[in-house]
Amino acid sequence: MPVISVTLLPGYTPEAQSRLVSHLAAAARAVVPASEAGTIVFVHEASTFRRDARVLTGGDGAAALPDAVEVVRAFLDAVGRRDFEAARSWLAPDFEMVFPGGALMRDLTELPAWAAARYQSVRKHYERLEQAWQGDVTVVFCSGTLQGRWPDGAGFEGVRFVDRFELAGGRIRRQEVWNDLAEARAGRPTAP
Amino acid sequence: MPVISVTLLPGYTPEAQSRLVSHLAAAARAVVPASEAGTIVFVHEASTFRRDARVLTGGDGAAALPDAVEVVRAFLDAVGRRDFEAARSWLAPDFEMVFPGGALMRDLTELPAWAAARYQSVRKHYERLEQAWQGDVTVVFCSGTLQGRWPDGAGFEGVRFVDRFELAGGRIRRQEVWNDLAEARAGRPTAP
Amino acid sequence: MPVISVTLLPGYTPEAQSRLVSHLAAAARAVVPASEAGTIVFVHEASTFRRDARVLTGGDGAAALPDAVEVVRAFLDAVGRRDFEAARSWLAPDFEMVFPGGALMRDLTELPAWAAARYQSVRKHYERLEQAWQGDVTVVFCSGTLQGRWPDGAGFEGVRFVDRFELAGGRIRRQEVWNDLAEARAGRPTAP
Amino acid sequence: MPVISVTLLPGYTPEAQSRLVSHLAAAARAVVPASEAGTIVFVHEASTFRRDARVLTGGDGAAALPDAVEVVRAFLDAVGRRDFEAARSWLAPDFEMVFPGGALMRDLTELPAWAAARYQSVRKHYERLEQAWQGDVTVVFCSGTLQGRWPDGAGFEGVRFVDRFELAGGRIRRQEVWNDLAEARAGRPTAP
Amino acid sequence: MPVISVTLLPGYTPEAQSRLVSHLAAAARAVVPASEAGTIVFVHEASTFRRDARVLTGGDGAAALPDAVEVVRAFLDAVGRRDFEAARSWLAPDFEMVFPGGALMRDLTELPAWAAARYQSVRKHYERLEQAWQGDVTVVFCSGTLQGRWPDGAGFEGVRFVDRFELAGGRIRRQEVWNDLAEARAGRPTAP
Amino acid sequence: MPVISVTLLPGYTPEAQSRLVSHLAAAARAVVPASEAGTIVFVHEASTFRRDARVLTGGDGAAALPDAVEVVRAFLDAVGRRDFEAARSWLAPDFEMVFPGGALMRDLTELPAWAAARYQSVRKHYERLEQAWQGDVTVVFCSGTLQGRWPDGAGFEGVRFVDRFELAGGRIRRQEVWNDLAEARAGRPTAP
What we know:
Six copies of one chain form a homohexamer.
Chain A: E1 3-8, H1 14-29, E2 40-45, E3 48-51, E4 54-57, H2 68-80, H3 84-88, E5 91-99, E6 103-105, H4 111-116, E7 121-134, E8 137-149, E9 155-168, E10 171-179, H5 181-186
Parallel strand pairs in A: 1-2, 5-10
Antiparallel strand pairs in A: 3-4, 5-6, 7-8, 8-9, 9-10
């Protein structure tokens, strides 16, 4: 039943407008128990817009923020390939990572060393990528299972994990990781 | 700059409308890089509304969904008090919990036994409660640190954790937990 | 897909608003091939309205026009009961009736005499009452079958008829009748 | 006084939009007693539209339904020329015709034979073409007088008639005819 | 042709809303050459309104500014009665008056002395009170003619004048006066 | 807080739309005590518009009225250059001027003669140009100081003046002038 109308300046791409209306529908349905069939969202472009004594006319629309999930995918993809140069292009200058046990790192290149003590190799199987929209900040939660090899070469799989990525202005400024690797290690037949 | 207008039937409380407009503002600002000052959201109540050949008039508005964060708070509060009766009132019939290591439980009363082997007592310090609005489902992520006592009585604190709560229709149907307890245990001077 | 918003002054009853939104949905769907599910119509009441230098505020809404089909039903009902006094309350001062063969009458009391030569009694079975909205004028078409007795007492039934009622300002100003009675009469075994 | 705003996707021609706003004005004025001067209708094109989890953007507008009166005119025109091939292009597959006396026909080519017994030739003078918008169906009523020649060659004119055309999806699926020909025949100096 | 919709929080009186829609109509017609008949302005009350992260719901509407012309009338009325106490209630703390010749005064009580040299008595006949709306400031121009007695008792009338009143926040902060008194004095048969 | 939406037909230039939204913001803020930051005005172009049974579609928008202040500037500019031909292009056929003392003139060429008795030369220093929007009429008030030479060659400056220009349909139909020249003359050491 909710009908949501958004007035924007022209200039936003169909993809950005599509993302916007989908966000709004989801956000509204978290409060109003309406079906998708009964949730209507549309965009009206204003030819002229004035607020705070400033007049904007057609085409002055700012670029939209990138899709946070796509930014995180691109980042994780680059890290997975150990292409830290490309990965850094998605990071904010004050980027920080916190890994299980509380280890805090600021540079991606610190990762291999930190990881070497924990596993020989690891691959992340993503099951869910979920977004929390908080205005200036968008948080993306990725969860799924880890598959890989312990330092001694034995394999592991199905180890639960969740990552929290904090984005502002389209850039990742914080990544936090939790997983069951320690549980899995402690539960191994041969304790480390 | 985005101006968002929502048409609703009358009957939603000021609290529900307030939550709705805040949701919409946050969701919009995740796509359109506008300041809070430039993001306008308001509600117009329609005296009569027709869709799918059904006409609704004043006051037929369905009740709003409860605030997911408040539901989770109330649930965690009751669990903390071991008041499982009250806690269950927030759960969906098919509720499932997954704890570190992959332990799956369906009944809250299973918790004490499962926990006894891991810690004598534990208290959760919540730092963030974040919502991902997904239409039919709202997911709440709670993160913070754990403080408590190991089975041998020694204390621990600052152990990272994150919970994922999945809600539908205002009820919790799934809870997933990750934390650094195993890391902390493995890192204890005297290994268990 | 069409979303139709109507701004009205307050004061129109829920029934009138319901009729209005249904009219608008039907009228729109005659041009835009949308399903009922995708056709949305709602009413926003304006607290203040200004046009042509006149300002109207809450509650100045004029009464709605009566439902034309209900006016015609009430009229036909009264005529059927030969309660011409009540029937006249639904007529405009310049009311005219045109019957098969082109007979023009202005007074309902002329009916019995005109009818007596054609049939002993007649009853109208209405199958459809359809409205053509033409702004200042609403036309109602009633169609169905006639059942009754010829002057010689023999019965007839299933004789097709259609009436056209022209209403303005909620009053009937013209009624036109067509039917197959002459066909039926000519087709009788015993020709008159 | 009513102000009606319609939100549509782009793609509808000016003619279709013109027809739409005129329909809406007429439909509204059948309930709200406002003058034409005080009835305002306009179309806002939405750059993006979402309902039922589907997002449509610019130019995805479906074609408008044809003007029912124009379809009926084109059909009657072709029938009048005995160009049944062209006439059939306006008909739905399940088209049926009901003529005075209840004769039911499905094929236009049956017409000449059925008519031959009744009249040598006939021409329809249309005075009114009126539309009843019923959502999925639009009904067009045509009324006026018939002029022609009886089988014996004598002429007739001014014979009242009304046709009811039922359209769905822009095609005619049913035509019903009533007229005073039997009355006129019975009233001829030399009875047949 | 312009249709202007204003969304406000509830709480503004019918008088304030009436003034608002009239202002907007006049302001629009200074740019768009539309007739009064074609200029439509209405107010929709929003049940909830959010901007700059603040949510306002029903009834939080701030009081409207007073009608600037009424403030000026009340002020001039009080001054005319020499009721400076009442007159001051309409003034801003930094009020200044500039009279012909450039005389600057801050206190109303200075007026009688300044005037005594110029005329024995004077009455203002107002023909026009015109408003210039400038956002934070509203300027009212009053013009008409002066009638009175010269110091020597001889009468004068029809002497042109114009006053400029500058208002902010509903209070008068500046008054400037121009008139033809000097012209009239110089043109008197017996020069002073 | 007020959100003002204007529906116009396409065809108005960005400049005209900009002027329109600024007018509306100023007019609204004269009644509603909102900040510029909280005053939102935008224009939606309607693809089709119907009122008073007339349908207008894209691009039929009438030209906007010229900016009254610009018209007055251009006029005063031409008069200052004594280019009465150019100046007249801004005047309505029934143009009238009223100068201090009540002198009424209809032709600009009468000015030099009238002025010669009063001053040798004069230049207007404009400090403020203010607009009063009155629907069919826009009034512009210009105020500032005069600088020039008396007939005897002595100079004067800082003499207060105000002009009232009445415009309709983009043309000046009336100019009224007030100033302190007579005051200044009377106050000269050597009386004329």
